[in-house]
Structures are given as C-alpha cells and as structure tokens.
C-alpha cells in the first residue's frame, strides 16, 4: 500500500504497455463515468512511481474520469520500478469487479510466458500471478507449443524456402565449422556459458535507458551493463573487438554527461577504448513538437579492444590523388607507397574510411526490425569486415531482430546471440536463416 493522493490525470502514464486487458471496455468506462458524476466513490487506482506515474491498475476508471473531463483521480501511489508496475498490472485485473474476458485471461498468461523470468516459474506460480487456473496455464502452454524448441520448429516452417535447414551447421572452410544459435535468455547469463577467449567481435546495441518504457535510469543502465561488459571482456579473444552502440536521452536539452562514462565501463572490465564512431542516421525521426536538439541525428559507437594486437583490416577507399598532389611533400607521397616516415604507416592501398558511418535505418532492403529500433546492417558490416575473417565468431547478446547475426552469417562468419524477448528471438532466427541462404564469401 502506498500513499493515497489526488493525482492529476495528465501525469498518469497509460502508454507504457501495462494494460493487460486486450482493450479498455469503453461501454463499461461510460457507465463508470456516469456513476462518478452521480458522486459514487471508486477505489483508488494503483500507480507505481519511478519518476513517472505508471498506471498498474485502473485503466477503465482513468478512461471514465477522462471522459468526464476531470482533472484528478484518487490514486494509491507507491515508489517502485517499471517492472513492479508491470507485475502488478499482470495480477491486477484478476481481482476486479469488472470480469475479465477469456481473451484478457489469455493475454495475461501469454504475456507472462513471454517473460523470460516468469516463464521459468511453475504453472501453479504463473497461474497465481495471472489470477487464472493452473489448468489454463497448462492449456495455453500446450497450444502455443511452449517447451522444447517450439520456436525453432515454427521458424523453420516459416522461412522462405531455404535450400538447407538454416539450423544445421554450415561449413565455411575445411577446418571451420560455424557455430550458430539464438538463445532466449539474459545477455550476462548466456555470455557466462560461452567459452573464454572464443569471440572475435561483439557488435551490440543494448536497451537504452528509458527506451520503450523500460524505466531504467542512466545509473541503473550502468549497473545493468557491468556484468554484461565483464562477460564480453572474458569471452573476447586477445585480438577481439567490442562495438557498443548506445545513446542517452537529452537531459534538459543537453547531452547527458554520463555518456562519457561509457569508456570507464570498458576500462573497469579491462577493455580499452580503441575508437569512437559516429553513426550518422541520415533519417533522424521527425522532431514533432520537441526541441530540435532532443532528436539527435547521430549515435555513438564505442569500439573497445582487449589489447594493442586487435585485428584491424580496414576497408580502404581510393585516395583522392588530385587533392593529395596539393599536399606538402611527405604527405602526398604517402599515396604512392613512397612515404615511410612520420607517424603514419606507409599505405599505398588506399584511404581508411572515416569514423562517420552514414546509414539510414529506415530505407534499404526489407528486413525484420526490433521493437525498439534496429541498427542498419551497414553499421555492423563495417566492424565485421574490419575485425573478423571467415569463420570467426561474431556475437550480439542483445540481438533484437538479429541484424548483427544476419550480417555475420551473410559474410560467412559464425554467429551467436540472445534476447530476453521471445518475439525478437523468433525474428533473429528468421533473419539469420535468410542471410545464411544468401551467404557471400568476400573477405
Ligand atoms: C535496441 S534493441 C537491439 C536491436 C538490434 N541491434 C537490432 O538491430 O535489431 C535491444 C534488445 O535488447 C533486448 N534485451 C533487453 N534486456 C535484455 C537482457 N537482459 N538480455 C538480453 N537481451 C535483452 C530487448 O528485448 C531488445 O530486443
């Protein structure tokens, strides 16, 4: 029980996926609205406060009060996390006067089964949490084929006519058997089961603080990432690279200074920041009524390494010989293989690409996207081609729709990934299956 207060309706967040009914019944809401107008008192709604007032229980009452044009509603407010609100919401409707439909009950159970942690509880426990019978949990599990590899079966059937099963090992060279897999699990757990010094490249984009209503503050994000980065550091090979793409929301219009603590996150785990890349998004989302500076047109990618001997085979472009000729002697000679002094290595092969990776994530080929956002394949491609050879293992522990894994598969690398969201696991398996079928062995 928290504190019961008159809470402004405007502050209440009903848009954060905590509505566990299939939909708010607007007929019931208008009946409630009428009773409210007649002065009938309703129980307080249940709200969890994590900096936002997240509605856990009382969607119909809030809809009714909004219909009446009220400013406030009686609310029981308890401090907590987004997950507290989500779990409360899952249980809330079970105790209601307004009966749930069968579809509502099903939604509660399927939502719980898609949660990695809840799904591992016993049927009795899941039934208690969702306020349904144990028999219903068993029935739904059976219907959706919950259990041994249900997704692999469903996916294999869905993938567009692959020549071979995408889930068989793929031989890319005489000695290298590709490792593959997309697990349903927590990043740190899955990484902790991988062999030390086995991974050549990790390219990943974890959930951002506050993304999709995850309720994570920036400092919670650092706490969340520490065990993951520690595991990444352990599984990386001596010549491996870890490319981490993340952006923090603006703080009062300014860049959050904690963005610059990300290198420390790596140092803490024994990794050094080798490079910084900027992903030039080309198509930043429209600003709407937000200040322009709230919508960054770029995101950083922090590239960490274990030591100085990281593998780096840069993608080279043509030198611009015309402008090279205008440079002082010494500099211009670098383009012709004649230069061997100074801080630059002799390199007549071409120019290394800039650290700005221009890639739109809305255009291009049709592909599966993660719920939050998927980064573009071009971004991953840069790291895969720069830092791995055919057969090397590429990992994404927050794989979403599988962009990293698909790029690795397309270029004949081994791949492994995981995600806590079953929907994303399914998408990732489909993405890599498609990419494996379109593999090219380039470099
Ligand atoms: C920004 S998305 C990644 C998108 C991905 N790069 C792509 O291109 O599709 C972050 C993903 O991390 C997943 N996630 C959140 N917490 C996780 C955890 N503890 N372990 C593994 N995955 C997690 C989310 O479900 C989400 O799919």
Task: Explain the overall architecture.
The strands form three sheets. The protein has an eight-stranded mixed sheet with strand order 6-15-14-7-8-10-9-13. Strands 1-5-3-4-2 form a five-stranded mixed sheet. Helix 8 (150-158) packs across helix 15 (422-437) and helix 13 crosses helix 14. Helix content is 33%, strand content 18%. The chain contains 15 helices and 15 strands. Strand 3 and strand 4 form a beta hairpin. The protein folds into four domains: 1-99, Conserved hypothetical protein from pyrococcus furiosus pfu- 392566-001, ParB domain, CATH 3.90.1530.10; 102-146; 151-315 and 353-437, Rossmann fold (3-Layer(aba) Sandwich), CATH 3.40.50.150; 324-351, no CATH class. The chain is elongated. It starts with a strand and ends in a 6-residue tail after the last helix. 36% of the residues are buried. The protein is an alpha/beta fold and 443 residues long. The structure holds S-adenosylmethionine (SAM). S-adenosylmethionine (SAM) binds next to strand 15.
